[in-house]
Hints:
Elements: H1 8-19, E1 26-33, E2 38-43, H2 61-69, E3 74-82, E4 88-89, H3 95-104, E5 107-111, E6 119-123
Parallel strand pairs: 3-5
Antiparallel strand pairs: 1-2, 1-3, 3-4, 5-6
Amino acid sequence: MCAATDNPTIIQRLHKKCCQSPSQYRIACVALNKKGEVLGYTTNKFRKDNIRPLIGSGLHAEAISMAKYFPLGLKTLIIMRIGLSGNILPIDPCEDCQKMARKLGVTIQSVMPGVGAKKKQLFS
Length: 124
Ligand SMILES: [Zn+2]
């Protein structure tokens, strides 16, 4: 759908951003507009459990990105999670973030482990 999402530079930068996450679950996402241009990179901010935090999805990388970049033309978010050794781990956005994305017409993709950092199309 979007050639820029296959750009290894974006994946590399996303990985670097993951490393900066303060959370135990190191997650970051990149926001793209409809032309596939990068609007910005965001890490999650939640310190312990980023998957289902008690305080809601407000500090998820996806939620932060949607709030920040939707007014700037956000169309696609690519999320990545890494383990302690920097390996890519599977990640799905939580229900709240998916709901928000649907509402805004934003597509969320996740970088899957394995050769070539394949992306999984969650919905569009
Ligand atoms: Zn979420």
